[in-house]
Fold this protein.
Amino acid sequence: MAKKKLAAIVKIQIPAGKATPAPPVGTALGPHGVQIMDFVKQYNAATEAQAGTIIPVEISIFEDRTFTFILKTPPAPVLLRQKAGLDKASSTPGKTVAGTVTEADIEAVALIKMPDLNANDIEAAKQQIRGTARSMGLKVV
């Protein structure tokens, strides 16, 4: 079997289980000639257990207009906001503190994000998550 030739890679972030053919999905996939409803059905089926969370997806589109997709872990800021119980982070990080997260929360987020981070070990991953928390105006206690 011959290998399919890759035409494009599209990365978008969509709420789990709630993808629709409307933007951003339609505007990202439409120009490549992909069957948008096929992607929407497959994505919603794959993410229905995580409903409500933002899940990034990397879609590989081939020249014959077929596609495959890889689900990533939720963005670190989304996970940190959930742990801190916030709707949004600080508008002026460094000056105002929006909330606090514990060291256990940092470790939990780092373990979830580990497959998508470019960290060699859990300590390096925790440092990256601490930096994200700090840039959001969250205090680590």
